[in-house]
Every structure is written in C-alpha cells, then in structure tokens.
C-alpha cells in the first residue's frame, strides 16, 4: 500500500523540479572545464554580462528579486565565479565578482527596461539556465542563445493575443454572473481597449495614460448599451462589463512580484513595484471616473452597484470553467507556450473552486481569496513541473480570475455618488483581497518547493509486526 501511495504522490507532484527549486546554497557545481583565470578580466566580464542578461529577462517578467538574485549567482557559479555580490532593484541589476585580496573586483551593471509581457521568453530563459547547468554550455554559446531569445518576436500574432484578451474579459464577465449579452459586449470592449493601448504604446505613451484610456473605454460601451437596452429589449448589468475590463487592465500588473519581494526580503524593490501597481490602478480609476462624469453630463446614469460577486453551488460548475478559461486565455494573451495553457486552466479552475467552497463556509472574501491563492500557488507550482513551465506563469495566470475588479468599481462608484463609506470600504476590501492573493500565492509556491520529491518513509519489516509478536520473538 505504501508503495502505491508513493507512486501516486510522485505522479501528482512529479520528479522534475522547477529551475529555482534546484538552486540552493551549496548546490552549485562548477562545470567540468578548465577553471576560470581570475586575472582574465575579459572572461570574467563575459560571464557577468551573461548573468545580468538572464537576470534582466527574469526581472522584467515579474520574477521576485530574491529569485532573480539566486539565479544570477547560480549562473555565475556554474562558470567558476562563486564569490559574487548581486544587487537587484526595481529596474537595475549590479553584479560584482571578487578575485581575492590582491586583485580588484570586476563589476557590471544592466538597466532593466519595461517590455511587453512574454511568458515564452521567460520559459526559454528558464530552460537555458537548465542547459547551462546540465550541458556545460560555453559562455559564448549561452550569450548567443540569450540574445536570440531576447530579440525573437512574439510566438503568436497580435490578433491572437487581442482575441485572447477579449475571451478572458468575456470569461470574467460570466464569472461575475453575466449572460451571453454581457460576455459579447465585454469581449468587444476589451479588444478595443487592447488595440488602442497597443497603438498608444507604439507611439511612446506612458503606461499611466494607457491605463486611463483603458478605464475610460471600459465604461463607455457598457453605458451606451445600458441606455439603449429598453429600446433593444435586452437586460444586463453594466457593472459586470466594466469590472471585466478592469480585471484585464489589472491582470498585467506586478501584484505577485511586489508582495513576494516585500515578504522574501527585498523591501526596496517590493515598494517600488507596489507603488507602480498603485499608480497604474489609479490610472484605471481616473479613466473610469472621467467616463462616468462625462456620461452623466449627457444624461446617462449607470445603475447603483448593490452587491458583490456571490459564488454559489448552483452555478459553480459554469463559474469554475469560466475561471479556468480566464486564466488560460490570460496566459495565451501573455504569449505563454501551448504546454502552459492546460496548467494555467487548472490553476484558475482550482482557485475558483476553492472560493466557492470557502464562501459556502462563510469564510469571507479576504480569507477565501487567500486560501484560493495558496491552493493556486501550491497546485500550480506542482503542475508547472509536469509541463516544465516556470511556476510564475501558473501563479500569475491562476489568480487572474480572482482579481477584485468589481470591488474596485463598486468603491469608485460609491465615492462618486456621495456614498463615501461604502466606496472607501469597497476600495479597502479590494486592496486587502489583492494583498491576500499575492501573499497566498507566495505561500503556496513556498510549500510547493518544500514538496520537491515526496518521500514515503520506509519502515522495516520487523516494525510492521504487531507489538505482541515482537515481544514473543524477543522472549
């Protein structure tokens, strides 16, 4: 029986490990080549430059600062530079290699610029680190590979990503209780947001104003359709469309990375990322509020938001499926590899299922979100090993359906309509839910790393016998 349990656990957890799981103090083994000459500054600089290039891709993709430091230190150690100091901040990486007491240290620095999120690039760099560890790649070869990864175009056309964002918004709208009409409007609205923001990004518009534009566009179609609903003979809740658009705008922000940095010992980077998160969220709120006020001047008033999302058992299957679709389409929109999509779907579905159960137990939105995020981080991290996908991809995609877009909109609507208590309470709840999601994912990933290889302790045959038989034998 114990043998079968062990086999089942290994099938679930897997024998493979995420790259970051294998990087531990004392685990670095210098590759079987000629040891590096510490007087050769050119060779040392080549290794440091390679390490910072890899770290830049990791940091830009949302990897926590501590994990980025460990992987940079690991790559340098594989090539013989074990005594290195690594400093990772919000947009800068500095690496210094010590060469003993008689030689000055060699250092390098790399600026990390914002790029569009590409999970395929992250997965390819993750595999490159594995190859450096396992195949003893030369620094020149590794440089060529990482340059090809960084300069390569996105794996899918833009229209695929645009459609994926639209399907994600439609799934979130269904998750919030919307029907077919709400889903279609949310899909079309979000595709317009993505196209407009892609154009604004192409002409160099700062990200804050792209978020303002997205928040503005998220409101206008829903409000116009609501005004025309009596004439068209349709009935829907515009807040579900607006909230789905806000979830799409919130999905690409570094929520997980900011809280994980603060928890794991990188407070400066965590504060910087969290301030960016607040600023970008403020841009969404500004765009939504501008649209609401503008529509009110022409006589279009949106209905009062009176309730939050309620996950019940009656419609739980549909919402669990919608949550999985939202997570998978977010991964697709972020250019994740095809092998990562089923894993992302499973992580999103697990998160929504946990929320359904927690709400039935009256656990509250914050506790339910934290439990769901912990489960997403845990199972997502374990499933990611089976698909050889970086756990960050699964974690970020898995919590996307749980982002508090409706709570943010409810709070903003209350503030704009002289319901300050309701408004600030909803915004505080949204803030707490966001922190609970990020902290839960961090805890789940930590537990997943602790379950690298399940070990079922083996008891000797004599210990499996009843106590009276042991006494008889000894007597």
How would you characterize the overall build of this protein?
With about 475 residues, the chain is mostly helical. The protein folds into two domains: about 15-150, no CATH class; about 160-450, no CATH class. The protein has helices spanning about 1-15, 40-60, 65-80, 120-135, 140-150, 160-175, 180-200, 205-230, 240-250, 255-265, 265-295, 315-335, 340-360, 365-385, 390-400, 405-415, 420-450, 460-465, 465-475, and strands at about 85-90, 90-95, 105-110. β1 (about 85-90) and β2 (about 90-95) form a beta hairpin. α6 packs antiparallel against α7 (about 180-200) and α14 runs antiparallel to α15 (about 390-400). Residues about 25-35 and about 455-475 have low confidence and may be disordered. One of its GO terms (molecular function) is transmembrane transporter activity. Keywords: Cell membrane, Membrane, Transmembrane, Transmembrane helix. It is found in: Cell membrane. Belongs to the ThrE exporter (TC 2.A.79) family.
């Amino acid at each position: 029986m114990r043998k079968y349990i062990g086999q089942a656990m290994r099938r679930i957890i897997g024998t493979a490990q995420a790259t970051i799981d294998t990087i531990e103090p004392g685990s670095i083994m210098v590759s079987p080549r000629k040891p590096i000459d510490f007087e050769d500054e050119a060779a040392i600089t080549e290794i440091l430059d390679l390490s910072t290039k890899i770290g830049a891709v990791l940091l830009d993709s949302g990897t926590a600062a501590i994990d980025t430091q460990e992987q940079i230190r690991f790559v340098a150690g594989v090539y013989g530079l074990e005594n290195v100091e690594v400093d990772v901040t919000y947009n800068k990486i500095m690496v210094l290699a010590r060469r003993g007491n008689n030689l000055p240290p060699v250092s390098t620095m790399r600026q990390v610029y914002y790029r569009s999120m590409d999970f395929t690039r992250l997965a390819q760099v993750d595999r490159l680190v594995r190859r450096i560890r396992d195949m003893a790649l030369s620094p020149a070869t590794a440089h060529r590979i990482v340059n090809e990864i960084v300069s390569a175009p996105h794996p899918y056309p833009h229209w695929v990503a645009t459609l994926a964002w639209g399907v994600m918004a439609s799934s979130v709208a269904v998750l919030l209780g919307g029907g077919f009409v709400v889903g279609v409007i949310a899909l079309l609205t979000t595709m317009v947001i993505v196209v407009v923001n892609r154009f604004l990004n192409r002409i160099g518009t700062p990200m804050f104003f792209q978020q303002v534009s997205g928040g503005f566009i998220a409101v206008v179609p829903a409000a116009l359709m609501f005004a025309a609903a009596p004439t068209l003979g349709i009935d829907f809740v515009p807040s579900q469309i607006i909230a789905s658009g806000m979830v799409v705008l919130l999905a690409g922000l570094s929520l997980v990375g900011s809280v994980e940095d603060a928890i794991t010992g990188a407070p400066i980077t965590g504060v910087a990322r969290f301030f960016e998160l607040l600023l970008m969220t403020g841009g969404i709120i500004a765009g939504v509020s501008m649209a609401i006020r503008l529509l009110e001047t022409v006589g279009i008033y949106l209905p009062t938001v009176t309730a939050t999302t309620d996950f019940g058992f009656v419609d739980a299957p549909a919402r669990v499926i919608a949550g999985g679709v939202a997570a998978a389409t977010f991964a697709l929109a972020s250019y994740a590899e095809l092998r990562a999509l089923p894993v992302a779907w499973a992580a999103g579905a697990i998160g929504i299922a946990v929320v359904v159960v927690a709400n039935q137990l009256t656990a509250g939105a914050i506790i339910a979100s934290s439990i769901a995020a912990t489960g997403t981080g845990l199972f997502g991290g374990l499933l990611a090993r089976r698909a050889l996908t970086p756990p960050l991809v699964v974690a970020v995609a898995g919590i996307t359906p749980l982002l508090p877009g409706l709570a943010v909109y409810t709070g903003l609507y209350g503030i704009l309509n002289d319901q300050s208590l309701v408004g600030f309470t909803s915004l505080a709840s949204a803030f707490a839910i966001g922190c609970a999601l990020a902290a839960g994912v961090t805890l789940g990933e930590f537990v997943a790393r602790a379950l690298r290889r399940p070990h079922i302790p083996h008891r000797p045959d004599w210990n499996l016998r009843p106590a009276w038989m042991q006494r008889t034998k000894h007597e």
